[in-house]
Write a structure and sequence with these properties.
Largest sheet: 2 strands, antiparallel
Structural class: mainly alpha
Shape: flat
Mean pLDDT: 76
Number of strands: 2
Strand content: 5-15%
Strand order of the largest sheet: 1-2
């Protein structure tokens, strides 16, 4: 990616900006390229969300898959409709 004067600038929210302090002590640190980066609280929360351990309830998915395969899975259309309406109302607020 070429960076020049026509490259658009992106505003980053202040809570996502990390503070960075490089520790360079003489030629040894400069040659090894060591640096320290302190992450903000917001970035630490975002990293914690990325671990993927809470994304999918594997046991629940397996139970639903088995219920569908056996024909015992019942779809409550009124519950789905109520959820869609509630989501639409929240988006309109």
């Amino acid at each position: 990616m070429k960076i020049n004067a026509s490259t658009p600038r992106v505003a980053v929210p202040s809570e996502l900006v990390t503070s960075r302090s490089e520790s360079v002590s003489g030629a040894q640190s400069a040659s090894t390229g060591s640096a320290q980066v302190a992450l903000s609280a917001a970035s630490r929360r975002m990293l914690a969300l990325q671990d993927g351990s809470n994304d999918i309830d594997v046991e629940r998915v397996a139970a639903i898959r088995d219920a569908i395969a056996s024909g015992q899975f019942k779809i409550d259309t009124s519950r789905i409709a109520d959820g869609l309406i509630a989501t639409a109302r929240d988006l309109l607020k």
